[in-house]
Amino acid sequence: MRRRLLTSGLRTRLVVTFVLVAALSALTTAALTFQQARTAILARAQDNAVRDLRAQVASLAPDLPARPTEADLRGLALQLDRAGGARDWRVAAAYRHGTPVSARGPGPGLPAGLEDRAARATTALVQRYHRDGRPRLAVALPVVPADHPGRPSGLVVYATFSLTAQEQDVTSLVRAARAGALPVVLASLIPALLAARRVLRPVRRLRSAAESMATGDLDTRIEVTGHDELADLGGAFNTMAATLQEDAATLRAMEARARRFAADVSHELRTPLAAMTAVTGLLDDDAAAGHLGPETSEAITLVADETRKLAHLVEDLMEISRFDAGAARLDLDEIDLGELLHKTLALRHWQDRVTVDVPGGLRARLDPRRIDVVLANLTGNALRHGGPGARVRIRARTEADRLVLTVHDNGPGIAEDMLPHVFDRFTKGDTARTRSEGSGLGLAIAAENARLHGGTLAAANSPEGGAVFTLTLPREPA
């Protein structure tokens, strides 16, 4: 979980985004600076070359004859070469579309097209090119007579020189930009962390508050500061928390009233039901003895059965009320589980329909009355829903310091959509199981008794068919 938060958490994404923006800004600035500096360096080199060449030509050209010969042009090129000094240019001169004449052997190696352009030009031309993989600059300077500035004289002076020094300056700029970008990116980590911390502080408070509410602390509120979107979110959270607290309080009050009503009704019904049960019992005995007519006997039997069911429902409601009120208590005793199980089955005449597999001498400290209720509810439920000829298997075993008891029937099993609700109150089987004749409280009471012992009760469908209820109890309840 921690690793996932580090790699994909909001804090990491904010820091990474901040650093990427800083890096992109640094690289963009460096690229623009490099481009402008490169252009400025090359432009300055070109301007200086043209200015120096024009000055030298202006001082030497007047000494040339009106129609210079090749020797005159070579002499001019030689003088200009010597005047170049540290610039170390190579000069050539041409007259009237003639071949450029150099003072040092072959010509300076002019770029293609420059001669044609220079023959028609009246101002200096410059062109950058590469020779032998090295950058160079070529300058073509048409010589214009002083007395006729708008008319070319036909004399063109060419000069070429290396741009290696300027290229090295540009390379140094690139290295400096690269070296400067890394510290900028690293330095951006500090404000990125601070900004992420500031942004995420309200988010962390909101998460802590949500976790507190998830544990049931509905009084949780967060401190809202500022007027941004996070502040609006915090205000919305506080409003939601207040609404939930009010709704929860209302629901608790309604639930408490409902439980009190059920307990009061059950208590009030208990006394008249006891009298009704006694009377219907006597009448049922008379009907069984044949003292009453057939129709009367049938009616008395029906009333007696329904009265007993109603009395049983009232007792179940009373039991549930005690669990809800926290008044249920354990009366622990050292018991033999096998003996208790046999007594439970014998009391209800189920021993012929239930197979029991319990090791001899399996003892535990439990409440015998409550465990009898659990076993009776589980077994009766299995017999009712096992279908015609139902057979139930009960098996007990020990695992470490816990007692595990399973009740397995041979019926169609429990519908998948019913499994999560089998221990809910007043839940009865659907069409996947035979319709229950009980109150729907038996399994809920069994689950409550299991929890009261510190154990659990679970329901599932067996791969072999039928439903399986698993009761797990500590051998020594805490």
UniProtKB/TrEMBL annotation:
Enzyme Commission number(s): 2.7.13.3
Residue ranges of every copy of the HAMP domain listed in the record: 197-249
Single Gene Ontology MF annotation: kinase activity
Catalytic reactions of this protein: ATP + protein L-histidine = ADP + protein N-phospho-L-histidine
Keyword field: Kinase, Membrane, Phosphoprotein, Transferase, Transmembrane, Transmembrane helix, Two-component regulatory system
Enzymatic class: transferase
All copies of domain Histidine kinase, residue ranges: 264-477
Protein name: histidine kinase
Organism field: Streptomyces griseoaurantiacus
